[in-house]
Structures are given as structure tokens and as C-alpha cells.
Amino acid sequence: MTLKTDNYADEMISVTIPVFNEEKNLSQLYEKLIQALDPMGLAYEIIFINDGSSDNSPELLNQLAQKDGRVKVIHFTRNFGQTAAMMAGFDHASGDIIIPMDADLQNDPEDIPRLVEKLNQGYDLCSGWRKNRKDGSIRRVLVSKIANKLVSKISGVRLKDYGCTLKAYRKKIIKGVRLYGEMHRFIPIYASWEGAKIVELPVKHHPRIHGKSKYGLERTIKVLLDLIVITFLDNYAQKPIYVFGGAGIISAIISLGIFTYASWLKFFKNISYIETPLPVLAAMTMLGAFICILMGLLAEMIMRTYYEAQHKSIYLVEDMKNIEVDA
């Protein structure tokens, strides 16, 4: 599939691939990438990020880089995780279009032209959807489906497969994005905050032949915790007092209710304050209320420092007419 058109002839593609102990897959993956990228007629680079591999992956990657100048390799000092590896790929990518994918041959490089073609139709992000997953675990697929529905519901960005690494991004939408934890799978949410046009496309998914999966229940828990962070940032990043202050007010109301009940017991049932733990509970919940409100005020100060000290804007402008912009 040749995609070189007048509008996109000068664009470059950067394929970024985190690698952790994938020595048996690398040579075949490289060959498949070349077969998929060469016919597109666009300049490209392949960036492998060695995430502290303990097998022969580093040596094989160096050989590929020596053999082909379009292959670039980043070696980490130790294993930092997939999100850090993807972030390194984004930071060092030169292309106008960035395509991350896994190194285990479960993603198919043949889908890359289709993803890029979708971007050329006016989208900023094309997300792969593993419609027919080949993971072999019903439990894993079921958990993934539930998680995808939960993330879509909470974020408002409707995708069937947040966990698919194979995606195509226009570089402008992820420029400046900082990722932590397992948040690489939430990039579509970050992109939606920037006003990106997002589309999802079914892609091939192959069973793993070599190596071992690095995914487990622990990662699912991390994803759920990161989802809480994303939800907070989406709704309350600019006004954290709404969360902390709201929790403080609720705690104060509970405290007053408990103390009122303890007073009713004293005056109408002759049950002394020292005969019930209610006064202590009221004092603890009131203390919690003060702490929450103070944390909210502190968070407000931090947020103002974040925006004002770095001259960050609380809005994004797509275009302006007849307005001069200071250099």
C-alpha cells in the first residue's frame, strides 16, 4: 500500500518498540517491519527501547542498528517498565507520525499502513482494536473487556481496546505528554483533552510464539489505580479544592451528626459522653474534615504555582485570525 500523496509526501513515520527479553522475536519483527514500511513510500525510523533485558536482546538490537541506519536503539540501565520505555520512544522520535507497538509479534506490522491511512483522513489518533484476541486466557480477555468499558464510561472516550499498544499518533497531540505508572494506555484520554480527533480500527492479533507474557493481575490493579488519577486530573486538576474540600465538608457534617446523637443520648437517655465512643468518633471525623480542607488549600496553591511559574495556559487555542502573537 503506497500512501505517498501531495499532502503527506514529506511526513516521516517513527515506529517505537519497547523490548524486554524478546531475543527470539526481534529478527522476525524487523523483517516484518521492513516489508510493511518500505512499500508505503514514506521516510521512517524504527526505535527499539531496550528496557533492561537480561537475555541476548541488547546484542541483537545493536546488530540491527549496525546493519540498518534507520534502526535506532535506546538502552536503559535497568528495567523501568513499558510506560517509561514508550515515553523514551516518544521523546526521541523524529517522525510526524508515531506508532508504538509490542515486540512480541502479537501486533502485526501489516496494520501500520491502515492506521496511517486513517490519520490521513483527518484523524489525530488511530487506536488499534484487537477484535479477535489470541491471548488464550478467557479470564484475561474478560477482565480486559470490563476494564475497557469502565475506562470508556468514566473518561467519556469510547474505545473498545485501551490495552492495544498498536496505535498511530500525530506527534503534535503527544508533544509534552508525561507518562507515569501504567498510563501509556490512557494516551487517548490525554489526546482528547487536547481536542484530538480519535478513531478506532480493528487490527490483527497473533498468539505469542516465543517468550513469556509480562502481564498479570498486578498490572490490572495498577491500571485501575492510574484510572483514578486520570479521572482526578480530568475533572479536578484545576480546582482540587472541590475534591478535598468536598470530602472535608462531608466529614464535618458526619461529625456534627455523631455529636448531636451523642448529646441526645446524654440529655434524653442519661447516657454520659464517657459511656460511648461517639464523642471520640465525632472529634476524629472533625479533625479529618480540617485536614481535608487544609490539603485542598495546599493543592490549590501547588496548582497555581504549576500554571503561573511555568507560564502554562489553562486553555488551548486552535487558530486565531487578525491577532498578532508575540514571539
Explain this structure to me?
The chain is an alpha/beta fold and about 325 residues long. It folds into 2 domains: about 10-235, Alpha-Beta Complex (Spore Coat Polysaccharide Biosynthesis Protein SpsA, Chain A); about 240-310. The protein has 10 helices and 7 strands. It has helices spanning about 25-35, 55-65, 80-90, 110-120, 140-155, 170-175, 185-195, 215-235, 240-270, 280-310; strands spanning about 10-20, 45-50, 70-75, 95-100, 125-130, 165-170, 200. It has a 7-stranded mixed sheet with strand order 3-2-1-4-6-5-7, sandwiched between helices. α9 packs antiparallel against α10 (about 280-310). It is elongated.
Strand residue content? 5-15%
Name the CATH class of the largest domain.
Answer: Alpha Beta
**Which outline best applies?**
elongated
How many alpha or pi helices? 10
Number of domains: 2
Q: What's the total number of strands?
A: 7
Low-confidence stretches: none
Sequence of secondary-structure elements: EHEHEHEHEHEHHEHHH
Radius of gyration: 26 Å
